[in-house]
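Continuing the series of single-chain predictions for the mutant panel. This is the parent chain; the variants come on the following pages.
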Amino acid sequence: MPGEFEFIEWIRQQQRPSDSVLLGSGDDLAILKWPDDPLILVGVDQVLDGVHFDSARHDPRSVGRKVMNRNLSDCAAMAALPAAAVATAAFPAGTSLHDAQELYRGLDDAARIFDCPIVGGDTASWPGKLVVTVTILARTGALPPLRRDGAKPGDSIFVTGSLGGSILGRHMTFQPRIQLARDLAANWPISAMIDISDGLSRDLAHIARQSHVAAVIDAAAVPIHPDANVPRSAGRTPLQHALHDGEDYELLFTAPRCDHPEVHRIGTIIPGDGVFIERDAQRQPLPPLGWEHAL
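Parent structure:
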């Protein structure tokens, strides 16, 4: 990549004034004026060319938006408010300055919506494919952070939108559900919450395992996105796509009650272990077939 220092200087010039950022990128560390929240929430996420996007199909700006939005969705999963982010990029050798700038613009496009300044990071060039990593800092904003381990028998299971078929494009264009998460946390007794990144079956299994309970999904109640009706693999039904595809980035949560107009009740928490699905009065185990990285 030509001109790493030129690119870093360009990034420094993109910084916008903020009451919370005393010193942004350009020094060894950024300096933040942290609000009066008692907790700091920290998360990190990485996207890889060929795994989370395809550089032959997805432009750098779209890639930047996706990696930032994945982190912002993690904030939504805990009903937290984004405060600041740092980003690193390992660019393929020969990447143009224009493409590097477009990647940054995509990161900033997503972060700016939630008043989340990018305050630093690092760049490098290597013979491999593009790798982008974002670390995000978040604050509670007067609401306790929601966790995965609080689901209780008798709770209902809810999702915030329709599921399946994200590979047709929504995995690159989704909007993090931060404001909806804050609304839910402020007005309903949410016991556990996660964002659906790896698939409904796998992410619900995370809640069940960490809460030491079992979960039962009502197959007829799962909201299926129209994209899940487009056949892409032999023998896979729209319901199976909705259960296992992943990268929907909707919120999946449990609560004794919730009548918010944007959520769908899809099941119940019961004593025991595992995740089950009910169809035609028949209950069967539901394996977590969503996305899992091989190690």
